[in-house]
Amino acid sequence: MRKSKFHIFHILSFIAVSVSYSCSNNSNSIKMKGSDTEVNLAVNLAEKFTKLDPNFSIAISGGGSGLGITSLMNGQADIANSSRPLSDEEVQQFKEKNIEVKTVVFAEDATAFIVHKDLPIDSIDVESLAKIMDGQVTNWSEISDVTLPINIYGRQSSSGTHSFVKKKLKIEFTNTAKEMTGNAQIIEGVKADKTGIGYVGAGYVGHDPTASQGIKILKIKDSKNAVAVSPLDQAAINNGIYFFQRPLYQFILAESWDKVRPFINFERSPAGRLLIEDHGYYILENQKNEI
To answer: Structurally, how many domains does the chain consist of?
Structure first.
């Protein structure tokens, strides 16, 4: 993927009182948990970083944005990867626990909607998508030339992507939607189901050609655009016109900030930025060289 015109990381600090947490004790050991959207990228960034500085060890696991934030709150992680911002309730919980958190916005992501490769549709409008996801439309015959029941492959409620899609479509998901634990499960479900539709991180399918075999990535049409837009269209993302695009976050314990800083600086380096873009994500503007 060619280099994005955006070049920014920004840091937000909130909640003024800090405490010591167990994750802060080992100055060369970092625990990172959270978003499945970010997990593949996080693993590759950590691998490259620890090759440059073998004194560091970084343990990474997914499980969803909500799990990462909860782990941060309970002192079981130094970094929570999240594909959504903190909720008002979570901000209040951090305050009540006297935990100071810093926020890094390190990339822009797009959520892709996928169907089986043989399903005869290439695009879908937001209104029809909302009706499918909330259960009003249950057969492909209502929007295409085939008569097949629709099977939905989605994420569990702790997922930031689940929350993001729900908020963007202004719906509640139908209870018939299958709840999967991550991008890979959703893709495999849709590959095996000619009636299936699911949503995954565009970076996940854009980075790995084998992941996109057997599926089709739909273009999305909304009321603001004359044509349907692909989540893999970098120009569209750069211009902010793809309907399902969003920032990606890393929430970091303030007590862990000094030891995490070298890793964050690596993310911001030319090598880190290239790796982020190679995974199908986009870098934001006004990035500083060092925190």
So the answer is: 2
CATH number of the structural domain spanning residue 58:
3.40.190.10
Q: What is the pLDDT of residues 158-190, one digit of tens each?
A: 888 999 999 999 999 999 999 998 888 999 999
Same domain, 131 and 213: yes
Helix (H) or strand (E) holding 45: helix 36-52
> What pLDDT score does 8 carry?
36
pLDDT at 271: 94
Structure tokens at 177: 């939607």
Whether residue 99 lies inside any domain: the answer is: yes
CA angle 170, 175, 179 (to 5 degrees): 95
Q: Do both 115 and 231 map to the same domain?
A: yes
Q: How far apart are CA 287 and CA 290, in angstroms?
A: 9
Exposed (0-12), middle (13-18) or buried (19+): which is 96, by Cβ within 10 Å?
exposed
The alpha-helical segments, DSSP class H, found in 97-244 are 126-133, 160-169, 183-191, 202-207, 234-238
Structural domain containing residue 167: 110-238
Look at residue 26 in the predicted model and tell me its pLDDT.
61
Q: What is the pTM of this model?
A: 0.74
CA distances to 73, 81, 93 from 86, rounded to whole Å, are 12, 11, 10
> Which residue positions in the chain have pLDDT lower than 50?
1-22, 24, 286-291
Same domain, 143 and 217: yes
